[in-house]
Design brief:
Blueprint (H helix, E strand, L loop, with lengths): L1 H27 L12 E3 L4 E6 L5 E5 L6 E3 L5 E6 L5 E9 L3 E17 L1 H4 L8 H4 L5 E8 L16 E4 L9 H14 L3 E7 L11 H5 L5 H9 L5 H26 L25 H6 L10 E5 L9 H17 L6 E5 L12 H15 L3 E4 L17 H14 L12 E8 L2 E7 L4 E3 L8 E4 L5 E3 L1 E5 L2 E5 L8 E4 L9 E3 L8 E4 L5 H6 L7 E6 L17 E2 L8 E12 L5 E7 L20 E5 L2 E5 L7 E3 L3 E6 L2 E3 L19 E3 L8 E6 L4 E7 L8 E4 L20 E12 L1
Parallel strand pairs: 1-7, 7-10, 7-11, 8-10, 11-12, 12-13
Antiparallel strand pairs: 2-5, 3-4, 3-6, 6-7, 8-9, 14-15, 15-20, 16-22, 17-18, 17-21, 19-20, 21-23, 24-25, 24-37, 26-27, 26-37, 27-29, 28-31, 29-30, 31-34, 32-33, 34-35, 35-36
Length: 737
């Protein structure tokens, strides 16, 4: 028995030894990332990095078309070599040799493009409107497809689930339609192989696709960059934050143990820093880049096409900053400062709510190609078949318009028409507006009708539908109600499917031009306010709100244009009494909130409710009795959309329980209600300005200083004072870092 046991023991040991040898051999094998495989396409005319893993110190040689670069794996097992620029062609064989040998067969050299974004990029060929007509022609041995499986990760990954496939009727149905039609045209026009990498995920925001270095490159996104760094275990910021947190918990633990021993109360532990909480889903910064892009960086590729934005649609110009972060981030991680980046203007769609939100987003998208080289936007406002379908099924022209931009701006084919018409200048000729356009030899309408979706406005800021006439590459606008035009806008509505295009059939995208001179009074009276940006403006003597009393109709709303961290907010109230001299006051303070909507009139839709004291307040005014300068004690803010009562439940020193003044009681259950937008110098028992009862039109209340009415309410409540003024302006400004 003992002998048998020993024998069995050695047999088992032998099995373990064999297993260990096998594991050792497997670990010693040279291996490649999934992007390097048979049937792949290598980028032509660029240095081509090839990388992978092997046993530390193992010599690795890569052989391809007469090139044989060699290296040794580092201590971490990683190795990398570089192939010199290659000429288009194939098929070839790529060999990687270490202790083992890998052969990649049927490798082509040509153009490699990344296709990314959300559902309209993910939208498959089988669901596109042109699929049945295209299917007989899809087999093309010079086009290769690489489909990345969906995944998100907290940290950068090396592995992914994907593989290269041939372009044929079997593999094309589940591939990106926009990606395929883009690649098809590139292949046809350049007559070189094309490799398409589809890494997209429906419903995702732009932030998860962006690498950390992208956020770091945009100052206005510094908070996102910091949050990403906080969750990166390798970053200095993470280590500093963790060290500080551990020290605080250690101190708390020691103090708590001491208190327990001395039968004293134990205080709650320190709050865990929110920045250290891991990301929880695929919508958060960097997590899709980590899992679906990083594993094949720094692959040599020519560029990327991008169809995304629906999930960020309400952000206005902030989205342009995020696009710049994505583009500059990818150009960095792929070691390619000339990486082409061509993207799709979102299609018209009935999102609901403010019908101009999408127009502001279009403006943000259009601004990116003006600030970064080798970028461009494909306008597709003519390709919608159902305005209630967020996924326009006609994808062929989308892909082809992206390809035209790439052919022109990346491949230098300047003889082709690739860009949509673009406004070059605006001139005022009496009561007419003359718009001149570039990127066109002539303008026309695709339906033979008059140009539509043009609007003009005078100094009042009220836009009217314009009568538009085409004259070559100019369009002349007029409206009988606008004697002196100041500004124009085109397709400024989420449902706009305009008909203006150039001779190549490329559509004119949404734009606005001109400026209503609304800062004039402010700049004259408040020269120190030159660094402030206008956020909102309206006439407080006759305000209008939506029918459900939830939202104020601003004359000017630039909330979608403001980017950067808000340093201060300024409130400028200007009134023209019917029987006296003009009055004004300008109050600046730290922002009440980071949400721009909450800095305006506190309507129900804004979500703003503040009853708080603010320090570091500065006041300028020409109204007698108003305390000016900077207040050490600050002021008391009473902003809310609801009803309110006179009792001083907030405990403001000196406030009256019987009058409406600078210490009143909010009644949040009645909303939307009367409404209060008041700032008070409570130390002087003084209302700096008040605007109440927003929905009452010229029956609302507005005033600077305390209401002078005998036995009245100092904060102007129930005064119906707006009728005492012939007009005015309430302008909200912000100062950004």
């Amino acid at each position: 028995m003992k002998i048998k046991f020993v024998s069995d023991f050695f047999v088992v040991l032998g099995g373990i030894a064999v297993t260990l040898l096998l594991v050792t051999d497997l670990r010693a094998d040279v291996r490649l990332p999934e992007i390097f495989a048979s049937d792949m396409v290598l980028q032509r005319e660029m240095n081509v990095p090839v990388w992978g893993w092997a046993e530390p110190g193992e010599k690795v040689t890569v052989s391809f078309e007469g090139q044989n670069p060699a290296t040794e794996a580092g201590a971490d097992g990683r190795w990398s070599v570089q192939l010199e620029p290659l000429k288009a062609g194939g098929p070839f064989t790529l060999t990687v040799k270490g202790k083992n040998e890998l052969k990649l067969e049927n490798v082509l050299v040509g153009e490699v493009w990344l296709c990314s974004g959300q559902s309209n990029m993910e939208w498959t060929m089988s669901r596109s409107a042109e699929y049945n007509d295209e299917l007989p022609n899809v087999t093309n041995p010079k086009i290769r497809l690489f489909q990345v499986a969906k995944a998100w990760k907290q940290t950068p990954q090396d592995k992914l689930s994907a593989g290269w496939k041939l372009c044929n009727a079997e593999n094309i149905p589940n591939f990106s339609a926009v990606g395929y039609y883009f690649g098809q045209k590139i292949n046809a026009d350049l007559d070189v192989p094309v490799g398409l990498i589809n890494s997209s995920w429906g419903g995702t925001r732009i932030e998860p696709w962006t690498p950390p270095v992208g956020f770091q490159s945009i100052p206005t996104l510094s908070q996102i960059a910091e949050d990403v760094a906080a969750k990166d275990p390798t970053s200095t910021f993470h280590k500093t934050l963790v060290t500080k947190t551990l020290a605080e918990y250690k101190t708390w633990l020691e103090t708590s143990e001491k208190n327990l021993a001395e039968t004293k109360m134990i205080v709650p532990p320190p709050v865990f820093p929110g920045q250290l909480v891991p990301y929880v889903n695929q919508q958060q910064p960097t997590v899709l880049h980590n899992a679906m892009v990083h594993p094949f960086a720094p692959l040599a590729l020519r560029g990327a096409i991008w169809y995304q934005g629906e999930s960020n649609m309400s952000e206005g110009m902030v989205y342009a900053e995020k696009m710049k972060a994505l583009i500059q981030g990818w150009r960095t991680v792929f070691n390619n400062p000339d990486l082409g980046f061509y993207y799709v203007q979102l299609a018209p769609f009935t999102y609901g709510g403010d019908s101009t939100r999408l127009a502001y987003f279009w403006e943000a998208q259009a601004s990116v190609e003006k600030s970064l080289p080798k970028t461009g936007m494909a306008v597709i406002n003519d390709l919608v078949t159902n305005i209630k379908d967020i996924h326009p099924p006609r994808k062929k022209l989308v892909g082809q318009r992206l390809a035209l931009l790439a052919l022109s701006r990346t491949y230098g084919k300047t003889d082709i028409a690739a860009a949509s018409p673009e406004l070059e200048k605006m001139d005022i000729d009496g009561s007419n507006v003359v718009l001149s356009f570039k990127n066109a030899q002539e303008l026309k309408t695709r339906d033979g009708k008059s140009p539509d979706w043009f609007e003009i406005t005078g100094v009042d800021g009220v836009y009217h539908k314009a009568e538009a006439t085409i004259d070559g590459v100019t369009i002349i606008l007029k409206n009988a109600n606008v004697e002196t035009p100041y500004a124009v806008r085109f397709a400024w509505d989420q449902t706009a499917e305009p008909n203006v295009q150039n001779e190549a059939g490329l559509q004119l995208g949404a734009f606005r031009a001109g400026e209503i001179p609304e800062r004039g009074t402010f700049d004259t009276l408040i020269p120190e306010g030159k660094n402030f940006k206008l956020l909102y403006s309206f006439d407080p003597t006759k305000p209008t709100v939506t029918g459900d009393k939830t939202q104020l109709n601003y004359k000017t709303d630039k909330s979608r244009e403001i980017v950067g961290k808000i340093k201060r907010v300024g409130y400028f109230l200007y009134l023209k009494p019917k029987d006296g001299k003009e009055q004004f006051v300008f109050v600046t303070m730290p922002p009440l909130d980071t949400n721009l909507a909450k800095l305006g009139v506190p309507t129900k839709s804004s979500g703003a409710r503040f009853q708080k004291q603010i320090s570091d307040v500065t006041v300028s005014s020409n109204v007698s009795g108003i305390e000016t300068g900077t207040f050490a004690d600050g002021c008391n803010v009473e902003f809310w959309d609801c009803n309110y009562a006179a009792p001083n439940t907030s405990g403001i020193a000196g406030a009256d329980d019987q009058k409406f003044d600078f210490g009143d009681q909010m009644s949040p259950t009645v909303s939307p209600g009367y409404g209060s937008m008041q700032i008070h110098n409570f130390a002087k028992k003084q209302t700096i300005f008040a605007f109440n009862n927003f929905a009452a039109g010229n029956g609302c209340e507005v005033g600077i200083g305390n209401n002078p009415a005998s036995n009245g309410n100092p904060d102007w409540t129930f005064s119906r004072s707006a009728q005492n003024y012939s007009g005015g302006q309430l302008m909200i400004f912000v100062e950004t870092e």
